Amino acid sequence: MTDPPGPARRATILHADLDAFYAAVEQRDDPRLRHRPVAVGGGVVLAASYEAKWRGVRTAMSGREARALCPGLVVVPPRFGAYLEASRAVFDLFHRTTPQVQGVSIDEAFLDVGGLHRIDVPPAAIAARLRAQVRDEVGLPITVGVARTPFLAKVASRVAKPDGLMVVPPDDEEAFLHPLPVELLWGVGEVTARRLHGYGLVTAGDVAALPQQVLVGLLGPAAGHHLFAVVHGRTPERVVTGRARGSIGAQRAIGRGPHDDAFVRAALLGLVDRVGRRLRAAHRTARTVVLRLRFADYTRATRSRSFAHGTASSEELAATAAHLLDEASALVRDRGLTLVGVALTNLASDAVVQPTLDLAAAGRGGLDAAVDAVADRFGTRAVTRASLLRPGEGIAAPLLPDDLA
Hints:
Shape: globular
Number of helices: 15
Strand order of the largest sheet: 5-6-1-7-8
Number of strands: 12
Helix content: 25-40%
CATH topology of the largest domain: Alpha-Beta Plaits
Strand content: 15-25%
């Protein structure tokens, strides 16, 4: 990080990260939850507001443990439709800011504003304006880090949270990075951090003082080379745009069981319906269905199955997901299921589809299109599987007598 300053060393990368996203949406939509500790989930915490985080509540913690740490915790069920709508509104603002947007997840992205230097304000001012737009137009807090590389921008946003803005000038990168604890470095998880601590390495500066081969010897080739590049500012300087999405998924925390088999199956099929709509809205097909399970002891398991050709049919996707769940039934019974998820991978464009010949399948595509159209016009809860309805929900109508049918 000793190169002379110049055009290539300007801080023009923004990392924009919504704060406690799911919980913030709940606090935005329900004024009674504002400034209170909120957890989204139930049996397992999917997200926590900062008021809850400051009391020790963390994602993936059991609801019982979270309530013990924070007696005043308000637990609300997830509303994934609301989160997706909020994400779309925020990403619209990202794309209004610059065409160079690299989405990382539903609630964060990198923005390259280097090409705007002749037609817009400086990057720090762009970041401040973006934060104000997200607050005013979407009603959510967002933290933005500004730096020369995506990695440094990501670390800057971590340091600035919550609801902050931090700029790392190229000449001050070492002064910013080296005092930070290794846990804040992007790519250093709990296991790597513990290993580094075991060798007395606490800060990024401690790591930067070691030769590259020593780090390789401590952590292995991949992690050692990566961490050496990280602490010396040698990570890629460009955001990656135009990359096709690799998967579409959704998950649902269902709390600690035991759970009825029909309940788990209904939860899974509801997720399949959701990701199927997203798949078709993106004009994609999927060739692989992945079932994801998490158990009461926090262990995980996955099962997957691939088709000979890509499909966007909810019927095919649901049948495959249900079959995978049946295959994992012994694990579900023995270890106590707390979360179920489904992902569609091996995605491709639906411009050319090679369907499997099935003479009895006429009209199924029309059914999917009709259900999608109703969901688009009236909301995703307008049409749902009857097995997902609780007692008293939906519309009950008496069957006509045989002579009037």
